[in-house]
Structure formats: structure tokens, C-alpha cells
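Hi X.,

You mentioned you wanted examples for the new student's onboarding notes, showing what a folding record looks like when two proteins sit in one file. Here is a clean example. The first protein comes first, with its sequence line followed by its C-alpha cells.
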Amino acid sequence: MALTREEIVQTAIGLLEQKGLEGLSLRGLARRLGVSAPTLYWHFRDKRHLLDLMVEQMMAGPRSRQKLPENIEWWEKVTLVMRRHYKVLISHRDAPLAMAGKRPTEAMLPMIEEWLGLWTGAGFPPGEALNSILATNNFVLGAALEYQARVARERAGTPALCPEEKAQFPRLQEALAARRTQDTHANFEHGLHLIISGLRQRQAELLTEGKAPVSTTTA
């Protein structure tokens, strides 16, 4: 029975979970599927294309498919989506690394068009809307990458500061001690709050300049 693209992508995701991005090779994937490596190129152009399809599949999970509430502000929708994407990325081993450098597949274009509509409907010019989307995506990606790296460091028992450094840098030691009392994802939430606050301020500036609609609620 012929392999389908979906089967290849699902198997590749499983291999990523087991061996990480460094251990994901086309040759290893072909062995897992019981085919020759050239066979895989009937379904995707290269490894980057495969990674794009893998990320698309991971992001299309049940959490991401939940419909956004309609009667909330545009920035609340952005907040919800950023949290959803962050949770998806940290739930898959090396997913942030796989997503770095991702390009949208054809299947994602309608969703991107709709998402741009949310931002332009809130008053952001198209170019600025796209830049804002890319900036928020980059933040989520970086936060997820750092979270997974932090977990790896803690599992390895790597201290943030050695005893000599603790005495030499008391303010840093105090800050790190305070951070240890926070929720695991407090750093993400702090950054998210700063970004959303900045975006709302930017929309207020557009309103003042007469470039944004008076209503900030979008359907």
C-alpha cells in the first residue's frame, strides 16, 4: 500500500519526539517507514519542506482548532492564540527548533489571510499588521525554545550561578531566587503582557492619527 504524506509526517513527528531534531534524518525516517530515502521526495521537496509540514500538523491539533470567542477584543484574541501556540510548541520535543525558519505551506494561506483580517480590522495597516504578526510569532518561538532549554538545564542539574558568582553578584542572585518562586511559565506571561500592552498602545496611536476604526471589537 502506497505511503501517504500524512503517514510520513506523523512518523517524522514520532521520530522527532524520540530523537530530537538532531536525530531526525531523512535516511532514518525512510528506514522507519521501510522505504528508500528517494521515495520520500515524492511527497516533499526537501527536509525544510518536511519540517514545515510537521509543524503545520502539530499546530493543527485540537487546542489550536478551538474556535476563538467572537465577542472579545482583538487583542484578547491575539493573547489566546499566542498562548495556544506556546503550549503546542512546548508540548513537542524540539518543536521550536523545527519551526525556526518555517515558511507557510499552501494549506496555511487561508488561515494567514483571515488572521491578517483581524489585525487590519483593528486598524493596523497591512504591512504593519504582518510585521506585528511576525514579531509576536518570534516571541512565542523564542519563549518556547528557552523554556525547553531551561527544562533541559534543570534536568542536568546545571546551576545558574556557582557559589563564587553568588557572592560576587548579589542583585542577580536575588533576582534568580525570586524567579524560582514563580510559576514555570511566568516569564512567557510577563513578555506576553508587555507585547499586548505595546500593541494596544500602538492602536491608540493609530486612532489618534485617524488611521484606525473607533470600534476595537472585531468579529
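Then the second protein repeats the pattern, sequence line and then C-alpha cells:
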Amino acid sequence: MIPGLDRYKEAWQVESDREIKPGLHAMREALLLLGQPHHNMPFVHLAGTNGKGSTLTFIERIARSHGLKVGKFMSPCIVDVHDQIQINGEPIHPAQMDALFKRMASAGLSGKLTDFELLTCTAFLHFLHEGVDLALIEAGMGGREDSTNVILPIVSVIPSIALEHTNFLGDTLQSIAMHKAGIIKSGTPVVIGELPEEAKLIIEQEAAFQNAELFAIHKHFCIEDETYSNNKTGLKISHLKRRMLGKHQGHNMAIAITAFLAIGEALQKRVSIDAIRSAVSCATVPGRFEEVLPQTFFDGAHNPASAAKLVDTLRESFPQKDIHFVIGMLRDKDVGAVLKHLEQVGTSYTFVDFSNERAMPAKTMLELSRSGNSRVTNDCLPYLLQPREENELVVVTGSLYLLTELRTRLLDNKRNM
């Protein structure tokens, strides 16, 4: 369920299906009815297991620092559906959503699409109407059969690949890589992050088949300390300071810089090193090791790979702190493997229920926990609002849906104070 979407569906009597239905036939038919709003627009397409949102944000900030008007379509939302479609950091306005749903209703889209497909069409229409210079599109799931894969990007980006959505994408890294590789298009550059060898081989084969120039981290470009280096172009950028912590965010930043070099070439935009430095220094992503309250962080580590990166960040940045985790997850995730990572650094674990039909019950998570200092709570908000000792850190993690719910409640609590 996409929070806030039903309001527009009901207002304009546009029916859609909440179930995931991979495949592009319905999207292509719908876009034809809408007059092909996705044609002749400069796109960047991102797919991958982790790092898409952070990499997209780095690209967005760099592009905006070069004077480009940038649209972005991402998922899931932070608060509600409006967050998923933005231009220059501003969410789509309800009046704009109404106008676009009116158009989609008139075009006869009712009953033809899933919720995510409908929202993808909305994003394309919005970006076309507002005349963006660049549109950053994050695949919802996989890549090859994802609703976003109707675009022809000027660069494709795959930050990472790990096991995810195995009921749709397959239960091997090779199968999942085949889906991600689907965003690689003929003659279009592709930038990749640190991938497992079996997944990297699939991506390399697809790039060769599509005659797409490949830029791989550690091989064609790298980040060491605060310096970016590109072996293909000879470019070096030093003194890159970022607010997003963790080695993995350094990798995401380097991927974004490399992608923007391709964007600059495609759009004939001169690249400014000073603009890049300024952009990465202010890039932040809600729910990516985000400090929402003093000594309280939100991080959407919803799979083993992202949980491992969270643990690395905590060890690197807060080695002497007592870490108290607050955790809520979806039942179709590998909860046991996530907990195994988190239990390497945590002092205590609080498991919570949240409003999502796919949520794993907090009691079930407690049973999976190997920690002797775990508990279940019906409401973790009072705990989050408690003052912290100097040596304490609270990390709320797991599902982004949990983070969205808690963020909304914290905002409501702040307004009512």
C-alpha cells in the first residue's frame, strides 16, 4: 500500500491493483494512451539491492549544483505518496496530483495498472509537464520487468546486488543480476558498484552484448580517503567531505560522480569540480543513518547486506557507544540473518509491531533473537523520546515502512507540543 494514493484513485475513480505484476505490456499500453510522455526525456535509471536511494541523492545534488532542473522518482515514500515524485527536492503538490489523475482517468487508465505502475505514469507526466532537464528513476523491484524499464536512459546505474525479493527475482545472485542487468540499454554507459563476482559477470556480459561502456568501481574509478579518481578520464577530485557516514556511502558518492560525468557528456554540460564538492557535502537521505533526534538514528537496513553496512558504520563512527536497536521488519525478509549482523554490536534490542500487512510480529522477531537483552513493546515512541546518556545511541532499523510510520508520529508529536 502506498500511503495517500487511494485519495486520488477514489477522487478520480481510477482503479488499480495493489499486487505486484512484473512485466511491461500494461505500462506500454498505458503510456501509449497518454501520448508517450516518457519519450525524448534525459533519464538516469538506477537498479540494485542497496544504495539506490543514496546514489540517486548524490546524483541529484550534483546535477542541481550544475544548474539542472532535476526530477526524481523513488520508493518507498518517506511520509506519503507525494515524496516519491519530486522536482529539485520539492514533492509533487496535491493540486498537481489531482490534475494528472484527471488526465489519466480521461485517458482510460482505470483498471489497467498496478499501484506502482500508475505512480510511474504519474511521475513521467509530471516531469514532462514541468520541463525537467534530467529525470532520475529508481526501479521499484528488479529491473528488467519493472514498470520503470520503459525508458531509454543516458546512463544506467547499479550500486549493488544481493539476494532480495526471491519469490519474484529468483533465489540466486545470477538470477537477480539478470533482472538488474535489464536496465542496461544499447550504447548507453553503465556504472556499477561493488558486486559479487557471479553477479558482476552477468552485468559485464549484458554490457558487452548491449555495446554499453562499463565503469566499475575499483577498476575504472575509486574513492580513497577523500579523493575520487577516474582511470578512464584521468579526473581526480580531492577534499570530498560528505555528511552521509560509512565506507559504503563513499562508494555511492563515487558511483554518482562517475554517473554525472556521463550525464555531463550526454547533455553537453561542463563539469565543475567545485560544484561536485559542494553538492556531496550537503547530500542527505531520510532513513539512511539519519539523526532524527539527538543520539537517535533511523536507518532502513532491511536485508543482510544493508545490515552488514550499518554494523560497519557503527563500528567506524561510534566504536565506544552502547547501541540500542529498535527493530521492525517485514516477514518476507531474511530477518534471522539481519539480526545476526546487528547482534554483533548491539547492547539491547526492542522489537516493535507496525502498520503493514506484511509486517512480522514483534514476538516472532523476539523468538529469532539470540540476544539475552531483548524485549517487545507495543509503542516505542515514549522510549525514543527519552533523554540519552552520553555513551548511548539508539538506532531504529529494519523496514522503511516502520521508519515512515515513526517519522509521521514524531512530526505529529512535535506539532502537538
